[in-house]
């Protein structure tokens, strides 16, 4: 290691995050202590894990522990641990950069509005850098477990764009973070305050946290343990308060908003494990990033094994946070081994069911469920295609906009089944590009007239999702805008022998598969209908966005022969004007679907001519 003190610049994203954090988190500033204690606790976890292979790392008398030391004279608060520690390379990497992909984009999305940014930064997770909310200088001294006393390192920064790194001798392994507190953060030199914050946020930490108050006057140095230091998930449920559960959630998730709900279970027998799973109240910024961290914290007999163990839940439940402690797994279990390990597959199946039950139960609380759905609804939809074994349970979690409840996304498939008349044997839905396009679609006219509810789907994933969902509780799902519509006996017979149908058909032959009389429309003159097996516009766009050619398919134009426009057309002679009107009829049906006519300039010309004549 270099003996000289070296100066490094923070990665640009770090500087920006620091600046934003100091300004937006001021009113939440005590979270810095939770974050630094969390890091210390993680470092102790990692040491214990490493000591499984190298027991000498846990030298006698060196049980993992965390200490807080107040020095009123120097104006410092020190958070120290004897955990895994860091070397020079580690500190430069860990305390000088942010390695999460998408960070730049995330930071660009912050608005400068303190309140909104505080929320967003919570989504990001603040971590070590939160030290600068209360400190105008931070010194970190560390030595990696298992290295020589001379391999210590000191990192120091005022958070203004640069940090220094130098080699030091350090007797203890592990890390000490020394906060030189800002003048307005001196309250954290008060042992009473520290006790209160630790009790509030970090009581559940599984390693002892001691508060050391230096000798003062005749009083000797005092060390007092502040927490019970047992793994929270190992304690009986009835002894754990909601507040403790919420604080533990924040500890493992780095979120600073409460979780919506949790489930804590101990399963005994051959496949023994304890799980504590949380549903967050908001999505992390990188929910859709492929490389984002996800998964549970894995422990084996309370020994931390790994973060982000993804194998215990399917992809579409990647937003669940929590801990799994499986005492019968081998301590040396690796990510690769987890992949195909029989017991893990079984735990995964059981945890998946548990989460689905938890979500079902959350559905009883309309307000909380609305929050959940707005954050994670899209991801749950992935489960319809991904988890065929649990498809019905996943489908029960879906919420839709509905023709019966405009403007609200709150109708479940069960509610739909409950609302529908007994003789209706189908669930109808409509796909559109936006909620308003769905609500105003001409396809709804006949359903409205007959009082039949239609679910309105306008998320980009919806077409993909319903392609996997044929039926729910044995009732078929039917696209209201596809194929020939059969609304039972009540459907009025359409007159396809009308000569106008043939005339329109021959003029529009290049653009449509066929023209036919409709039973779908009441107020509109025409609409487009896709055949059952044709690709819809959402899937078409998804394919095109992925650079794949989408097969060409022509829609059917259905026309409302009772409409005055069609009646007027029937009276018109053959000729250019009739052809233009036929083309416009098709163009406006496309517009009503949110599609652009193939030749917009020609449409504009025809419209102009029509307007001139009308005026
Ligand atoms: N006390 C410590 N001992 C050892 N390593 C530490 C300690 N504190 C921080 N680190 C290292 O620095 C890294 C960055 O810490 P930071 O708190 O910023 O992020 P994080 O804990 O990885 O993520 P987040 O807090 O966003 O979940 C940690 O991943 C860890 O490797």
UniProtKB/TrEMBL annotation:
<comment type="function">
    <text>Molecular chaperone. Has ATPase activity.</text>
</comment>
<keyword id="KW-0963">Cytoplasm</keyword>
<keyword id="KW-0067">ATP-binding</keyword>
<dbReference type="InterPro" id="IPR003594">
    <property type="entry name" value="HATPase_dom"/>
</dbReference>
<protein>
    <recommendedName>
        <fullName>Chaperone protein HtpG</fullName>
    </recommendedName>
</protein>
<dbReference type="InterPro" id="IPR036890">
    <property type="entry name" value="HATPase_C_sf"/>
</dbReference>
<dbReference type="InterPro" id="IPR020568">
    <property type="entry name" value="Ribosomal_Su5_D2-typ_SF"/>
</dbReference>
<keyword id="KW-0547">Nucleotide-binding</keyword>
<dbReference type="InterPro" id="IPR019805">
    <property type="entry name" value="Heat_shock_protein_90_CS"/>
</dbReference>
<keyword id="KW-0346">Stress response</keyword>
<dbReference type="InterPro" id="IPR020575">
    <property type="entry name" value="Hsp90_N"/>
</dbReference>
<dbReference type="InterPro" id="IPR001404">
    <property type="entry name" value="Hsp90_fam"/>
</dbReference>
<dbReference type="Pfam" id="PF00183">
    <property type="entry name" value="HSP90"/>
</dbReference>
<dbReference type="InterPro" id="IPR037196">
    <property type="entry name" value="HSP90_C"/>
</dbReference>
<feature type="region of interest" description="A; substrate-binding">
    <location>
        <begin position="1"/>
        <end position="335"/>
    </location>
</feature>
<dbReference type="Pfam" id="PF13589">
    <property type="entry name" value="HATPase_c_3"/>
</dbReference>
<feature type="region of interest" description="C">
    <location>
        <begin position="542"/>
        <end position="615"/>
    </location>
</feature>
<comment type="subunit">
    <text>Homodimer.</text>
</comment>
<keyword id="KW-0143">Chaperone</keyword>
<comment type="similarity">
    <text>Belongs to the heat shock protein 90 family.</text>
</comment>
<feature type="domain" description="Histidine kinase/HSP90-like ATPase">
    <location>
        <begin position="28"/>
        <end position="185"/>
    </location>
</feature>
């Amino acid at each position: 290691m270099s003996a000289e003190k070296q100066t490094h610049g923070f990665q640009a994203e770090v500087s920006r995050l620091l600046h934003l954090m100091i300004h937006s988190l001021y009113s939440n500033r005590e979270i810095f202590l939770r974050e630094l204690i969390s890091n210390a606790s993680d470092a102790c976890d990692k040491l214990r894990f490493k000591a499984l292979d190298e027991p000498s790392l846990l030298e006698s008398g060196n049980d993992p522990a965390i200490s807080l030391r107040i020095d009123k004279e120097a104006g410092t608060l020190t958070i120290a641990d004897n955990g895994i520690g860091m070397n020079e390379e580690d500190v430069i990497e860990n305390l000088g950069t942010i390695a999460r992909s998408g960070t730049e984009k995330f930071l660009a999305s912050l608005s400068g509005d303190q309140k909104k940014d505080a929320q967003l930064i919570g989504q990001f997770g603040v971590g070590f850098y939160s030290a600068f909310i209360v400190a105008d200088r931070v010194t970190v001294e560390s030595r990696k477990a298992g290295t020589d006393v001379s391999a210590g390192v000191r990192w120091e920064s005022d958070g203004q764009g640069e940090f220094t790194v130098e080699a030091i001798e350090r007797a203890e392994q592990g890390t000490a973070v020394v906060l030189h507190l800002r003048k307005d953060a001196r309250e954290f030199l008060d042992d009473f305050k520290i006790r209160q914050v630790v009790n509030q946020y970090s009581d559940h930490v599984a390693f002892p946290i001691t508060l050391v108050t230096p000798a003062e006057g005749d009083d000797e140095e005092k060390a007092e343990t502040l927490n019970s230091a047992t793994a929270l998930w190992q304690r009986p449920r009835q002894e754990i308060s909601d507040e403790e559960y919420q604080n533990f959630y924040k500890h493992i998730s780095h979120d600073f908003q409460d979780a919506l709900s949790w489930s804590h279970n101990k399963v005994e027998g051959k496949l023994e494990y304890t799980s504590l799973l949380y549903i967050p109240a908001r999505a992390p910024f990188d929910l859709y990033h492929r490389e984002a961290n996800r998964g549970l914290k894995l422990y084996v007999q309370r020994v931390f094994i790994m973060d982000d163990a993804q194998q215990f839940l399917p992809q579409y439940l990647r937003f669940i946070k929590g801990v799994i402690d499986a005492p019968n797994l081998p301590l040396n279990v690796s990510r690769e081994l987890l992949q195909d390990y029989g017991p893990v597959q079984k735990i995964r199946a059981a945890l998946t069911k548990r989460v689905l039950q938890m979500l079902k139960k959350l559905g009883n609380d309309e307000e909380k469920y609305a929050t959940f759905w707005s954050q994670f609804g899209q991801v749950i939809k992935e489960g319809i295609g991904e988890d065929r074994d649990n498809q019905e349970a996943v489908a029960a979690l879906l919420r839709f906009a509905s023709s019966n409840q405009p403007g609200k996304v709150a109708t479940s498939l069960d509610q739909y089944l409950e609302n529908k008349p007994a003789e209706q044997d189908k669930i109808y839905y409509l796909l559109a590009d936006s909620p308003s396009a769905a609500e105003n679609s001409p396809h709804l006219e006949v359903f409205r007239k007959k009082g039949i509810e239609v679910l309105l789907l306008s998320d980009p994933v919806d077409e993909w999702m319903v392609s996997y969902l044929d039926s729910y509780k044995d009732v078929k799902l039917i696209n209201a805008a596809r194929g020939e519509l059969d609304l039972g006996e009540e459907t009025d017979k359409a007159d396809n022998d009308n000569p106008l149908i043939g005339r329109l058909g021959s003029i529009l032959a290049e653009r449509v598969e066929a023209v036919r009389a409709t039973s779908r429309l009441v107020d509109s003159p025409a609409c487009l209908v896709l055949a059952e097996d044709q690709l819809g516009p959402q899937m078409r766009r998804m394919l095109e966005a992925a650079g794949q050619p989408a097969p060409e398919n022509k829609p059917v134009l259905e026309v409302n022969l009772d409409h005055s426009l069609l009646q007027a057309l029937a009276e018109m002679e053959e000729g250019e004007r009739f052809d233009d009107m036929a083309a416009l009829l098709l163009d406006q049906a496309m517009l009503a679907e949110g599609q652009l006519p193939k030749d917009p300039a020609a449409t504009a010309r025809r419209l102009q001519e029509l307007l001139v004549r009308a005026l």
